[in-house]
Amino acid sequence: MGSIQSLALTLVELYQFAIVGYILMSWFPGARDSSIGLFLSRIVEPYLEPFRSIIPPLGMIDISGIVALITLRFARNGLIVLFNML
């Protein structure tokens, strides 16, 4: 059971890094048009889209990525509790 838990937590952490990388790519012109940017867009945008539809951008600042990361952190903590119950 420990290996399944560590695999699940590792995948969540990798997804968090992917989200952070995708958010940071918005600071550099043309970075999201690269092959890495397109790959990250395909895996991150489906998760970020519901947050963007709920949370409107505040001027030039889009905080939906931060809310998405916080939500993913809560889900990770829920996984830890769930695995500890088993």
From TrEMBL:
Ranges in a coiled coil: none
Name listed for the protein in its UniProt record: YggT family protein
Family assignment from sequence similarity: Belongs to the YggT family.
Membrane-traversing stretches: 7-28, 54-75
Classification via InterPro entries: CCB3/YggT
UniProt cross-references to Pfam families, sorted A to Z: CCB3_YggT (PF02325)
Gene Ontology CC: membrane
Domain of life: Bacteria
Keywords: Membrane, Transmembrane, Transmembrane helix
Transmembrane found in the keyword field: yes
